[in-house]
Amino acid sequence: MEVGSLLVGAYSIAKGTLKVVGAMRVARVGRLSATAVHEVEGAIKVGNFTYTETVAKHYFEVAKRGPNSGRLSRPFMRSPNTINEIMAGGKPIPDPGGIVGGLRWDVPGKFRGNEGTWELVIHPETNIIYHFNFK
User: Fold this and answer.
1) Rounded to 5 degrees, what angle do the CA atoms 127, 34, 26 make?
2) 1-51 pLDDT tens trace
3) How far apart are CA 33 and CA 6, in angstroms?
4) pTM of this structure
5) Which value, to the nearest 10 degrees, does the dihedral of the CA atoms of residues 49, 95, 92, 6 take?
6) Tally of CB atoms within 10 A around 105
7) Residues contacting 25, CB < 8 A, separation 6+
8) In 3-state terms, what secondary structure has residue 28?
């Protein structure tokens, strides 16, 4: 496929009817890799950002032990401001994981009193987040 836009949809069959349950636009695609396509069904939207279904699974995770036991493991996922601050706080690189058009930020910071690195992979044209963590 030459450079252009492609609409990738996730479909569901319910009661004998086919319906689109989510779609994403992959822009400026020279080739479409398997890692660039994710189902959007079950994805969570926060502000102008949408988490892929894989990332959205972490949205409700609760710490099972330690001082934060019983609390959300990644409460920062609910904050579009945190995402914007990470993007403003560092220079992105092309995603080494292979998301076509995706950018990755690795920004030093603090979370719950611990110093570490914010990791964010987002496709800036679609605002789809493929990775978001603090290590």
Assistant:
1) 35
2) 233 333 333 333 333 433 334 444 333 333 333 333 344 445 788 888 999
3) 13
4) 0.67
5) -50
6) 21
7) 5, 6, 7, 8, 125, 126
8) coil
